[in-house]
Design brief:
rod-shaped; 4 helices; Cytochrome Bc1 Complex, Chain D, domain 2; 2 domains; 2 strands; mainly alpha; about 120 residues; binds heme C; two-stranded antiparallel sheet
């Protein structure tokens, strides 16, 4: 009887610690996911414009390079989404003496963020 109780007791403890282990793992997984979601949500068109190097050639609101045209009011030109996307991925299709590098491997979500940002500049 005594050993049976003890056996039952240690099984319960093992079970409880397993539960605790799973709970802690789930908690850590959730924490990692939410921090990643937070990191992703902090990426936007304006930050991509800097991190992708557009700013080295283009000026927006007084900041940036002068190799390419000033984009401070690019949104006022009502260029279509398709045109903008093409300019980012294959600028040689638009300009005969193209200088701008093609951003071919940019993920579609980032292209969308950048184009939306540029179109908002009026
Ligand atoms: C090495 C310099 C350089 C970099 C880097 C660059 N561009 Fe350009 N961009 C140019 C030049 C030069 C032009 C003029 C047309 C051409 O050469 O394609 C241009 C044209 C454009 C245009 C069309 C402007 C107009 O009025 O017709 C847009 C929009 C544009 N770039 C956006 C971007 C974005 C967004 C990035 C970053 C993902 C970027 N560019 C990176 C040099 C650059």
């Amino acid at each position: 009887m005594n050993t049976k109780t003890k056996f039952f007791g240690s099984t319960t403890i093992t079970f409880l610690s397993l539960c605790l282990f799973f709970l802690v793992s789930i908690f850590i997984a959730l924490a990692v996911c939410s921090s990643e979601a937070f990191a992703n949500s902090s990426i936007n068109g304006a930050s991509l414009f800097k991190s992708e190097g557009c700013i080295a050639c283009h000026t927006i609101n007084g900041k940036g390079g002068k190799v390419g045209p000033n984009l401070s009011h690019i949104g006022a030109n009502n260029l279509s989404y398709r045109w903008m996307k093409k300019q980012l991925t294959d600028p040689a299709a638009h300009f005969r003496n193209n200088i701008m590098p093609p951003f071919k491997s940019m993920p579609p979500t980032q292209i969308k963020m950048l184009v939306n940002y540029l179109e908002s500049l009026k």
